[in-house]
Amino acid sequence: MIQRDLHAGLNRDISDCYLFDRADCIQYVRYYSKDNLGNEEAVKTSVQIRQKAVTLAEALDNAGLTWTTGGNAAWFGQRTVTYDGVDAAQSGDVSDSQSTWMETSVTGPGTLTYYWKISSESDYDYLSFYLNGALQSGRISGNVDWQQKTYELPSGNNVLRWIYSKDSSVSTGSDAGWVDQVVFTPTDTTPPNPPVVSGTTPTTDTTRLGPGRVAVVMETDIQISTEQ
Ligand SMILES: [Ca+2]
Ligand SMILES: [Ca+2]
Ligand SMILES: [Ca+2]
Fold it and tell me: Of 72, 113, 148, 220, which alpha carbon lies 20 to 30 A from 210's?
């Protein structure tokens, strides 16, 4: 005799997540039951709305930059804690004595700005910014709401790295750091065009002042302009 147990052996068949709008996608989930002979039967289909994954480039609003992430966990894009109301990068989930970083590089000179925020154990678990391998002053810990940072970057390649790092014990708050709106504005180093000098060929005017005397007048118009 076939006995059907709707709970034992219930398994799921999950479809692709079909794009629903910019942030969400729809996924179909079909549930099966299995009888005592091993036959499966679909018992329920449901629809779930899921958030589409956010890339780091999307989250940090700078598609022109290439982002890498590593350490004991990966930074990721999310839409829950943001400065711009849309998306931001969040540090990966790490344990005591671990760290997680994300990195990109830009060609200077230029101005770098970004926003960051942290919720961590104050004075022990930090969100830090490294420029070309050097820790920059003003790392944050504890509960610091969104604040903007600005750096003047030297010429050449600049490696930008954000690290969330924990000491050997205690986690408080959300135990995470966030970064949003990374903007790099290169300094315009193109030399200005040299001034253009234009004018008429000098003319002479010879006037007799009297017997044997001549005054020579030379005239020209000169315009100096700078083409932008
Ligand atoms: Ca974005
Ligand atoms: Ca963003
Ligand atoms: Ca700690």
Answer: 220
